[in-house]
Write a structure and sequence with these properties.
By secondary structure, the chain is of the alpha+beta class. It has one domain (5-227). It is built from 7 helices and 10 strands. The chain has helices at residues 40-43, 89-92, 134-162, 191-195, 199-207, 211-220, 223-228, and strands spanning 5-7, 17-18, 32-35, 49-53, 59-64, 96-101, 104-110, 114-115, 166-174, 180-189. It starts with a strand and ends with a helix.
């Protein structure tokens, strides 16, 4: 999604601005996107929510948008997100992101959107005094909050793992033509394991206020069948 990540620099970008993003074409090949835990309640209405683990055993939660490679079923022919559907913060934060460098978090962006056009001066990073513009301040605030939420979400999934609730699974889709597709190496919460938890773990889940998030995840799995029947 990010084609040319560049750290925001007060000197290098003092006269630079961002082009206006006309549509969401940058997300058209996203088959899924990370979710933070606070987004579960909205996202569970529209997408399957699953858990994945990277090569370093780092956990993340993800909303699934399609079942074929580079397929996002929620973008229309004009590259607009389907009306009424929740758009994850991971997508809404584009073209910004946070980069950890030497124990410091620095705001970065997709430099393919750099503009020197005077018509884009309202979208400059810095004002004539060299101070961050409102656009930059808002982007920094949003991305900082997203980064905090992302870390909290990882802690939540680590707790699910600690409680022994996660099981490896696959999302199986059948489209209108009867064709079958599967996304493998996913993790979901086992309802059977959830039902057989001891009192100590049940109390801990209540204390961590995890049951609502668990419920949202389980509700979201009903979207697997609906996603398979969406028009491609």
């Amino acid at each position: 999604m990010y084609k040319k990540v560049e750290l925001l620099n007060k000197e290098l970008h003092k006269n630079s601005a961002l082009k206006v993003i006309q549509d969401l074409s940058f997300a058209k090949e996203l088959i899924s996107a990370p979710l933070t835990a606070g987004e579960f309640f909205q996202a569970c209405k529209d997408y399957p929510i699953v858990f994945t683990k990277d090569e370093k055993n780092g956990w993340s939660a993800n909303a699934i948008f399609g079942y074929k490679e580079k397929q996002n079923l929620f973008l229309d022919t004009n590259n607009k997100w389907e009306l009424g559907r929740y758009i994850p913060a991971f997508i809404r934060r584009y073209p910004f992101l946070m980069i950890e460098q030497k124990e410091q978090a620095i705001l970065a962006f997709d430099a393919t959107l750099l503009s020197e056009d005077e018509g884009d001066k309202e979208r400059r990073f810095f004002d004539t005094s060299g101070e961050p513009t409102e656009m930059t301040k808002e982007a920094l605030s949003f991305v900082n909050q997203y980064t905090r939420d992302e870390k909290e979400t990882k802690k939540f999934i680590e707790l699910l793992d600690k409680w022994g609730l996660l099981e490896e699974s696959a999302a199986n889709f059948v489209n209108k033509k009867g064709e079958k597709y599967a996304l493998n190496s996913l993790y979901i919460i086992s309802e059977e394991k959830l039902q057989h938890l001891g009192k100590k773990k049940q109390a801990e889940i209540c204390e961590k206020q995890a049951y609502p998030l668990i419920t949202a995840h389980l509700i979201s799995l009903g979207n697997v069948q609906r996603l398979g029947l969406k028009e491609d």
